[in-house]
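Why Flavin reductase family protein? Reviewers of the renewal asked for a concrete example.
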Amino acid sequence: MKSTPTEIDHAAARSVPRAVGPGRMREVMSRFATGVTVLTVGGDHPHAMTANAFSSVSLDPPAVLACVGHGAVMHQALTDAGRFAVNILGAGQEELARHFADRRRTLGAAQFEGVARRPGRHTGAPLLDGAVAWLECELAASHEFGDHTVFIGSVLAAAQEADEDELLFVGGRFGRPATP
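Here is what the prediction returned.
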């Protein structure tokens, strides 16, 4: 008898050995270089969050995923909105990445004060000026696992905007790709 994906996920979560704790996992994963994105939702309750747990899922149909902690404000905002944008940041946007990662920042529309942006045509989610690329997505599925939810978005629109290096994050630091 085959298990459904949900049953497999829950069974896997219960069978994960606890020899590796959150601190060690964070330390090891810091060695994996990632791009830096800002997830945004629009509407009556706009919100943004810096995220590097992001990936392409499928080219046909186009889909991406973002992992969001259960305790993050973005978790409920994304669930409620059902549509979101992914802004892929450029190397010159470290300050913006830090702003939307700061848990002490003012929330709601005020967090966007002074941030150049425009609403996405398909989602209403803020598209940040200067981002090297962006995607507008409709929430297609979500899968809880451990302390995060994997949100899968069907891509409604995508574009490359700026012709500059991407912002990277590795070893707890921001950087840019090395040039040959």
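Residues 5-15 form the longest helix (11 residues). This is the kind of structural detail the renewal will allow us to pursue systematically.
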